[in-house]
Structures are given as structure tokens and as C-alpha cells.
């Protein structure tokens, strides 16, 4: 029998081999092996118990290549790993002679025919064997009617441990290698690297730094596909790899100038690439579409269009590659998980969770999903049962991936502090809030006496207020539900009210001398931006629709007025007459007239609004500077001392008022970690 005559499916011991799909299946668990590894397995399976020289194997599997014994050894090792052949019983090494497959090769159709020719006694035995599970089931039902698997996570280990920031990673299907993207100190300049999880060695795949966003293994081609962002849009590129996972060549698969953001993506066996994308450079705008791109034909399909009922932000391809799991926000701003059948395009919901954002991946049994809200891991079965697992992170747990009973993830760490300097003296900034965790989103009250800010010092975000002179502080928003997307506090001009939102649920904090109260704005879903000066109203970004439109909400009448303006990258604020201004692409624009409010030959980089005008940061002759624009008087030049101050600290500034500058200092790192997944049966008694 030649290799080509081997049937598509056959058994080696209890492992079902599917040549067509590249799968090795054992106890309903499937893993896809590389094409060269499968070709090697086919060659050995054609000649069971026969010793084949390494040179002969190489000639068959790599017919056009120059002989490399390392390629044979590597693929034999991967094959043994796929067959759990740690003791080298299935594939035997014969020193200086070659390799042999020492296990029996069986074919499903022949097995069936052999059973059909057995005596009547065999038929009775078959019937008895069929009845045995029935009796067992009945007896079990009387005593322990439900047996399920309880998942536990243990043995936390680092895969990377450095001061660098790992941005994204993907483990190869065989569990041997990890491809990952690493940030550098330069904005949007990142590396792509490979790490051998057995030897611990790592190497860069590309010499050039770029704004790489996500990547995925393309096992069908022994390649790695990455997405990249630039001023022209998004491109997808493929790196063809050799047996040592070094780049042989690179090709552009496709590029799109009509999108500026893409999600992580997946490639199935049919060379279909699935991803989410939009034109707003962020998943947080959520007006995304789901696309399927055929890498062979080049055809792109839009599987889901933006709508207000379900806004997906993450996706995961099932182990069987028949379904996509999508997590997104529904009409009530709750994260909901849905399954998309890739053959019929039918969508079904399997459960609502809560208002948090989630990352997700599939368990290998194809029966449940692993979810992460950044702090906790949860298991969601396809029947909707949700269980919190026994692992909690006080950092930020993102992009989990399950391979071979292990869950890999990135744990991001950050220490961010709030600093203060006096504008008139331009003194060196001093730390005013430092809790050895994330203290951010500092907002200064109009009277410059208080700072409201968000801190994760208690393990989840809360809003605090601190008196600058006395140092006295208190919690204003305790966040008892421990939700994670808490937005920047927005001061009312009176200094007695603060607006914010948690997971797109807006609220108002009413401040009094010794106490405060919280009022939830249950009639709207969105993120407050600024208070109006001349009416009891706020401007907010509406998250109930997919357009991220700006809406004015009157707190007295509950009236909503849509401004028919979408927020993309703009910074929106109101002037002293409640006219809407925006800072975008280095210009300040007044929306009622579309006039440019501030014209300058220099590039504006940041804007810091206050009641009577705004401070702005700009670059002149390569130097950062700060100036002030008064709504009545126009540009007011500041002291020449700002140039020296800006040279050191301008990139840290978050707010500027008449006398105070708020700044931030932060240190970030992110490592890749792994946990072992174990499961044990839990039994629940029942009765008939």
C-alpha cells in the first residue's frame, strides 16, 4: 500500500488519525498536527513495524529539500508528543538505523466488517454490552444522578518574566511553541518573537519594529499570520516558517484601508480567517462587524453587521472549528455570549453575564468556555451554567488560551501615581497620590482644593476625593459590585457634584460638607464627558447605540437631546457659553459653525479645558510647549519658564488649571503565565 492509498481515517492504538483534517483524536479530545508531521506519520503507518532510515523519511516528506536530520528529529518529537508517546513505545528509535511504528494500524471500516462476520454468540455479547450501560445508568440515577466535572487551576508558573510588556500571545496547536508580540519603549513599535516552551530558548521572527496588533498560527501552511496597523489602515501578512520555525518568506495576504481597528483573529482548516473590525480604531466604540476572509480565494464576507441589540467585542473559534463564540454587549449593556454556527450562520445565545468586559477561549472538550473579566476566571457551559474558578488576579488577566490542559494568559501589572506642580512656580512635580497600584483619572475641582481620582488600591476600581492642603481623603464610590470599567470623575463647576459611570451605567455623586449620596441615572447608558454651565445637564457618549453619539441629558426633566455627532478620537468640551468644542487632528473646532477656533502653524498635541478657556500643548521646532487660550481674549502667552518644565514633564501632564498642574508617572510590565487545568467529578444525589 502506498501513502496515497492509506484511508483518510485509521487507528494507531486508541488514537484516531484523520489525514484529511490533520487531527489526532483521543477520548474526544482533538489536536491538529502540522502537515509535515502528518506526512511523517502517514509514511510510518504505511509500513508498521518496519525500520525506515531517517534519510528515507526526509526524502519522502521533504522531497525538494536538502537533507536535514534535525528536521526529522523535530517532527518525530512532535509526533510522539501528539501520541503521548513519552516512553517511545509507539514510535521506536533504532540507533543508526532509523525509526519504526511499533503499534498496530487499524481501519474503522475493516473493524466493522470483521464484527459483522462473527457468530451469533458475538451478537448476543454485543447486545449484552449495549444493555450494561443501561443497568449502570439506572443504578447510578438512583444514588448519584448527576456527575459533572469541577475544574481547578493550580501550579502557576511564569513563561516570561522581565520588565518588558508582552502584548499578545498564541500557543502553537501542539503546545510546543509560543508566538508573542512585545511592546518596546517606542510608541506603536513592537516585536514578534517565538519561544520554545520545552528548551526555553526564544528568538525574534522579524528584524523590523512595527505596530503589530495580533497573530495566529496557520498550521495548514506551517506559518504565522499577523495583523499590523499603519496610517493606511490594517494589513494581514503571513510568515512562512521552516522546520526550526525561522522565517523562510513573507507575503501580504490582504490589506484594508476602510478599517482602523481589528480584533484578535482565528484561522480554520479551510483557510478561513475570522475577525472583528471597525473604522474607529477601538473595540470600545463597538460599532464592529464580523468578517470572514478566505485566504485562498481572497473573498471577504460580512457575517454580522453593527446593530444596537448585540455589539461583539471578542471572539473565539471552537476546537471543532464549527462555531464562533462571541461575547458582546446587548441592549441592556450586559455582556452576553452567543454562538455562531459557521455553516448555517445561525446565532444562539448561551447566557448573559454582567456589565463587565470579558476575554474568552474554549475548553478543549468543546463543551464550555473560559471567561476572564481581568480579575477572575469563570467557566461557562454551553447550557448556560456559570462557575467562578479558583484563581484570582490582583493585576489584569487578559487573552487566556487553553492548550493541552493548560491555560496560558497575560498578566499585566501597572504602578501609576498622581503628581502635582504649581503652574506659576513651575516647581518639580511631587507625588500627591501613591498607593503602589493604579491611581489614575485625576480631576481637579473648580476651586482647586480637591482631586477626585480612580484607584485600584483595594483590588478593584473606586472613586476617591483628596483635599490637597490637608491630605485628607475619603471614598466617594465604593463599587460594591466590584465592576471594572469605571470612568474618569467629572466635576460640576460648583464643586458639589461629580459624574461618572461604571460599565456604562452613569451616576451622580452629590457632595455635602460631611456626607455624600449617589444617584443612578438608570434611564441612560453611557459615559459622562462634561457638565453644562447654564443648565442642569450633562453631555455623555450614548452606549445604547453602536454609533457612540453625543447626547445632552437634562437631569431635571430627564430629556435627552441627540447632537448627531459621533465620538471617534475627538476630545469634546464646552466653552463658557455651552457651545460644543472638539480637539481633533491638532485643531480646536467649534461645532455650531465648523470654524477652527485656534489657528497656529504648530502642531497641537494635547488640550486641557477649564471654565474660561483651555490650556494646550504644542510642538515648536521639536520642543513641547504649553500656552493658554482665553474664550474672550484669545491666546495668552505663558511664562518662558514653561519651555524648561515642558522638556522634562510635558508628556506626563493630565490636567492644567489656573495654578495647578496634575501629572502622572507610571511603570508597566506584562508577563505570560500558565496554570494547569485539573478536573474531578462532583456528584449530586437524585431520585426517580
Automatic annotation (TrEMBL):
The keyword Manganese does not apply. Residues 7-103 bind DNA. Residues 7-103 form the OmpR/PhoB-type domain. It holds the Pfam family Trans_reg_C. The chain crosses the membrane at residues 124-144. Keywords: DNA-binding, Membrane, Transmembrane, Transmembrane helix. PROSITE patterns: OMPR_PHOB (PS51755). Gene3D superfamilies: TolB, C-terminal domain (2.120.10.30), Winged helix-like DNA-binding domain superfamily/Winged helix DNA-binding domain (1.10.10.10). CDD domains: trans_reg_C (cd00383). It comes from the Bacteria. Belongs to the TolB family. This is OmpR/PhoB-type domain-containing protein. The lineage of its organism: Bacteria, Pseudomonadati, Pseudomonadota, Gammaproteobacteria, Alteromonadales.
Amino acid at each position: 500500500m502506498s501513502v496515497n492509498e492509506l484511508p483518510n481515517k485509521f487507528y494507531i492504538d486508541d488514537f484516531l488519525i484523520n489525514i484529511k483534517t490533520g487531527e489526532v483524536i483521543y477520548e474526544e479530545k482533538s489536536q491538529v498536527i502540522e502537515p509535515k508531521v502528518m506526512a511523517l506519520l502517514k509514511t510510518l503507518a504505511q509500513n508498521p513495524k518496519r525500520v525506515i532510515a531517517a534519510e528515507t523519511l526526509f526524502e519522502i516528506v521533504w522531497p525538494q529539500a536538502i537533507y536535514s536530520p534535525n528536521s526529522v528529529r523535530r517532527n518525530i518529537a512532535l509526533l510522539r508528543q501528539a501520541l503521548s508517546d513519552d516512553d517511545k513505545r509507539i514510535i521506536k528509535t533504532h540507533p543508526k538505523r532509523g525509526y519504526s511504528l511499533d503499534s498496530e494500524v487499524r481501519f474503522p471500516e475493516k473493524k466493522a466488517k470483521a464484527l459483522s462476520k462473527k457468530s451469533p454468540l458475538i451478537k448476543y455479547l454485543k447486545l449484552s454490552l449495549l444493555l450494561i450501560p443501561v443497568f449502570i445508568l439506572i443504578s447510578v440515577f438512583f444514588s448519584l444522578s448527576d456527575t459533572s466535572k469541577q475544574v481547578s487551576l493550580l501550579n502557576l508558573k511564569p513563561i516570561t518574566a522581565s520588565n518588558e510588556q508582552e502584548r499578545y500571545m498564541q500557543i502553537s496547536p501542539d503546545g510546543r511553541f509560543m508566538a508573542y508580540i512585545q511592546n518596546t519603549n517606542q510608541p506603536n513599535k513592537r516585536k514578534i518573537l517565538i519561544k520554545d516552551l520545552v528548551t526555553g530558548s526564544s528568538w525574534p521572527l522579524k528584524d523590523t519594529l512595527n505596530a503589530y496588533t495580533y497573530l495566529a498560527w496557520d498550521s495548514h501552511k506551517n506559518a504565522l499570520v499577523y495583523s499590523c496597523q499603519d496610517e493606511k489602515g490594517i494589513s494581514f501578512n503571513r510568515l512562512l516558517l521552516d522546520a526550526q520555525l525561522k522565517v523562510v518568506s513573507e507575503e501580504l495576504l490582504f490589506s484594508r484601508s476602510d478599517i482602523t481597528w481589528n480584533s484578535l483573529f482565528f484561522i480554520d482548516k479551510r483557510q478561513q480567517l475570522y475577525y472583528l473590525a471597525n473604522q474607529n480604531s477601538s473595540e470600545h466604540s463597538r460599532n464592529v462587524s464580523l468578517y470572514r476572509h478566505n485566504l485562498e480565494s481572497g473573498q471577504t464576507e460580512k457575517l454580522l453587521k453593527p446593530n444596537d441589540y448585540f455589539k461583539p467585542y471578542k471572539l473565539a473559534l471552537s476546537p471543532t472549528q464549527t462555531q464562533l463564540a462571541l461575547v458582546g454587549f446587548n441592549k441592556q449593556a450586559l455582556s452576553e455570549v452567543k454562538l455562531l454556527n459557521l455553516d448555517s450562520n445561525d446565532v444562539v445565545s448561551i447566557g448573559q453575564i454582567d456589565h463587565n468586559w470579558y476575554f474568552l477561549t474554549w475548553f478543549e472538550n468543546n463543551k464550555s468556555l473560559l471567561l476572564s473579566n481581568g480579575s477572575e476566571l469563570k467557566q461557562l457551559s454551553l447550557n448556560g451554567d456559570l462557575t467562578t474558578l479558583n484563581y484570582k488576579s490582583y493585576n489584569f488577566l487578559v487573552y487566556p488560551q487553553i492548550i493541552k490542559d493548560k491555560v496560558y494568559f497575560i498578566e499585566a501589572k501597572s504602578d501609576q501615581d498622581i503628581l502635582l506642580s504649581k503652574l506659576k512656580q513651575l516647581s518639580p512635580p511631587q507625588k500627591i497620590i501613591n498607593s503602589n497600584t493604579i491611581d489614575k483619572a485625576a480631576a481637579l475641582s473648580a476651586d482647586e482644593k480637591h482631586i477626585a481620582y480612580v484607584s485600584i488600591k483595594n483590588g478593584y476600581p473606586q472613586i476617591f476625593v483628596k483635599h490637597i492642603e490637608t491630605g485628607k481623603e475619603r471614598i466617594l464610590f465604593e463599587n460594591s459590585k466590584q465592576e471594572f470599567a469605571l470612568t474618569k470623575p467629572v466635576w460640576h463647576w460648583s464643586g458639589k457634584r461629580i459624574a461618572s459611570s461604571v460599565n456604562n451605567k452613569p451616576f451622580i455623586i452629590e457632595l455635602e460638607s460631611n456626607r455624600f449620596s449617589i444617584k443612578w441615572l438608570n434611564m441612560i447608558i453611557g459615559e459622562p464627558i462634561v457638565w453644562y454651565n447654564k443648565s442642569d445637564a450633562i453631555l455623555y457618549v450614548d452606549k445604547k447605540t453602536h454609533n457612540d453619539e453625543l447626547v445632552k441629558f437634562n437631569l431635571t426633566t430627564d430629556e435627552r437631546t441627540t447632537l448627531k455627532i459621533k465620538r471617534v478620537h475627538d476630545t469634546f468640551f464646552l466653552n463658557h457659553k455651552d457651545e460644543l468644542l472638539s480637539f481633533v487632528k491638532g485643531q480646536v473646532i467649534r461645532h455650531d459653525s465648523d470654524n477652527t477656533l485656534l489657528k497656529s502653524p504648530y502642531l497641537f498635541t494635547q488640550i486641557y479645558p477649564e471654565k474660561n478657556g483651555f490650556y494646550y500643548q504644542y510642538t515648536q521646532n521639536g520642543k513641547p510647549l504649553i500656552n493658554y487660550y482665553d474664550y474672550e481674549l484669545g491666546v495668552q502667552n505663558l511664562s518662558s519658564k514653561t519651555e524648561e518644565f515642558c522638556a522634562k514633564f510635558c508628556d506626563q501632564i493630565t490636567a492644567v488649571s489656573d495654578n495647578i498642574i496634575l501629572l502622572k508617572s507610571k511603570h508597566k510590565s506584562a508577563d505570560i503565565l500558565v496554570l494547569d487545568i485539573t478536573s474531578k467529578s462532583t456528584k449530586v444525589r437524585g431520585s426517580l
